[in-house]
TrEMBL record:
Keywords (A to Z) from UniProt: Purine biosynthesis, Transferase
The protein, known as: Phosphoribosylglycinamide formyltransferase
Domain called Formyl transferase N-terminal: residue spans: 2-180
Record: active site: 107 (proton donor)
NCBIfam families: PurN (TIGR00639)
Source species: Aquipuribacter hungaricus
Coiled-coil blocks: none
Function: Catalyzes the transfer of a formyl group from 10-formyltetrahydrofolate to 5-phospho-ribosyl-glycinamide (GAR), producing 5-phospho-ribosyl-N-formylglycinamide (FGAR) and tetrahydrofolate.
Gene that specifies this protein: purN
GO MF, any single term: phosphoribosylglycinamide formyltransferase activity
CDD domains, per the entry: FMT_core_GART
Amino acid sequence: PRLVVLASGTGSLFARLAEAVAAGEVPAELVALVTDRPCAAVDRAAALGVPAHVVAPADHDGRAAWDAALAARLVDLRPDWLVSAGFMRILGPAVLAAFPQRILNTHPALLPSFPGAHAVRDALAHGVRVSGCTVHLVDAGTDTGPVLAQEAVPVLPDDDEDSLHERIKVVERDLLVRVTAGVLASGVDVDGRRATWHPAAG
Ligand code: GRF
């Protein structure tokens, strides 16, 4: 299956996915990285020989135009699956309509706790002792789609946002590879709020 990854940040999750595809851990052709801004992920894609496309909101006249342009770019790439790995924009209706139930997202908290762009900071501010990460299907909301997998990560007394987020990302990278491999190999069964994936055979 053809895979496109969406990212906006340092791209460490993208890089881990790219390594997993190259190693045959994820049965996919990594077609491209798509981002909303020039970012370190673009540099990693270049180093890995993966085409990168920037579709920046500033280049389009409003959110709907950007959503349409992003959808058009993604459709051109003919992906079977999209993985959002640190993409810091809400995917609009044009993108969602083009790839229904075909977009995975990873979030650095145990949803439904701490949705949104500051999950790690919010968890620390709340004083939780356990946080973690969630891989879910993307729906029209913010981090609200059916959950596919979660893993817990302890919060240590002297944690700050960076130390906790790095500890979560170590777990998140491997969870994302496992779920992406299983979903690309066997698909997803969605029954209301319950989305089930099957670990890749073998
Ligand atoms: C990940 O924790 C992701 O869940 C969050 O941002 C981080 C992306 O990390 N949205 P990176 O840019 O892949 O290093």
